């Protein structure tokens, strides 16, 4: 037996090592911007889920005392119970904003999930198989991308009537395209790394190579892109809703609330625009900075 | 014979060539009719400068590059005609160690998982405890503490990563290990350790090896025979104990003389080998000897006709009809 000459460094102590994930977690904890963004997003989430419990009003109740006198009776106040005031119909804006945030976050997260599942699978297969299959799959993506989807979706919504299902179909159709491209590019570069070659030489079957060697190395970029995709999806939904084609009454979303608030701006009820807009902006910045932080944590080489 | 390479030719078509016909200008011949045989327990060293086809040859043997012509015969069966199943079985017996130690390890797997992978693929029935025992055993062979199995590759140094690569190659008990520049990316101080480790393991387990390097001293240390390649052609094959004294191909001599002397005084004053220009582009077709454009003893006829690889002495093959075989006495080198 060969006498093992063990390296007497700190390495020789037993126990589990630090995985790249643990390293990333440690680095993100040292990034104040990312931590603050994350905390704010959690607070916004708690507000969206549990906020309505602390209000005496429901999102559909109309406060008849306020109606017709919204500028004075409906302004934000603690004693009336309307913390964020009321909208033009005398409905409590605090509860409605919480509902709007909930719907908007759901739209963003569902869009990102579709992108993660469909886009990642599509991209890895195209990138790993390569050749003609790759060409066919990616040209299909190009063709779908070249369709002015906003236009098509608006026509569909007008033709078939507004429905939340159709909105999700629209978001699902477009959200995975960019992800598929990014993942394919990344797969192409991972495919030529030596550890994939060595797996091929060992005789690992292709499906297992994708699962064990390529996907785990893609997770970082997929997570980063997904966090950056959520605000885009929220903007997408808000835009459709702003046009009056998205979420239907009495349901609401941030886009609907902002649209209604904007139409009432000149009547001295600026809080109707202010509160939804505040949450919209906070969510946008939160996800962007969080995504940035995750990217820095996963790829320390890119940090300045 | 464990492995026989017969007249293997590998060509790549360069991008932007509409006519993918043979002999067109846009084809690059990486290997041109290379033949050799490898016996059990033998180590063959392959040297040559960059672009000489060393790595392509290794990749052709493990089946990662399609072979246009010729045969690769593994223990009597032609590899080009084997189906997927037997190809997978052969992959258990034939494995490879890569040039860049860290890049050849998946950063998201622990080294225990990395080393165990060939075992899991080739022996699916083996229990987890047995695999863990074998991983620990293999790690000890290559000089790694088994307690480190839960660590990740980025926590190790280059030399240790190469040990992990060697352990992964060893665990399935292969018959042939192809080492593609195993020490090129390592510090000089670590090189000797890794080279000696490979040599030790080979003696112990009776594995055949193909050792690719551009470093003559490494090659000479581990190999039984040395094959010198230039632009996809074999220039000379010689037993390594005769390399310094008996090699006579002008290209081999140039390689030997280019090895720096670790004494600045001698290095400054000694005469460096005369070698003209850079190697020619590989896609320019040449009719005669590929080395003729840079050869110090080239004659007009050299660029006309293909030079055949002939056995000038037992075990010494040479692709140059004009160079003089050195006399029998030991020349001072």
Structural commentary:
The complex is a heterodimer of chains A (304) and B (333). Chain A is elongated and about 80 Å long. Chain A has one domain: MetI-like fold. Chain A is mostly helical and 304 residues long. In chain A, helix 8 (194-202) crosses helix 9 (206-242). Chain A has helices spanning 20-29, 32-50, 70-73, 93-129, 131-146, 149-160, 164-191, 194-202, 206-242, 254-263, 271-298. Chain B has helices spanning 54-61, 84-93, 111-122, 128-141, 158-170, 188-205, 216-222, 243-246, 250-258, 264-269; strands at 3-13, 27-38, 43-47, 69-74, 77-78, 94-97, 176-180, 208-212, 225-230, 233-239, 310-313, 316-318. In chain B, the strands form two sheets. An eight-stranded mixed sheet of chain B has the order 6-7-8-3-9-10-12-11, with helices on both faces. Chain B has a four-stranded antiparallel sheet with strand order 2-1-4-5, covered by helices on one side. The radius of gyration of chain B is 21 Å and the shape is globular. Chain B contains ten helices and twelve strands. The longest helix of chain B has 18 residues, at 188-205.
Number of helices of chain B: 10
Computed over alpha carbons, the radius of gyration of chain A is: 25 Å
Number of helices of chain A: 11
The geometry of chain A reads as elongated
Give the CATH level 1 class of chain A.
Mainly Alpha
Return Rg of chain B in Å.
Answer: 21 Å
Major sheet details of chain A: none
Give keywords.
heterodimer; A: mainly alpha; MetI-like fold; 69% helix; elongated; disordered N terminus; B: 333 residues; alpha/beta; 8-stranded mixed β-sheet; 4-stranded antiparallel β-sheet; 10 helices; 12 strands; globular
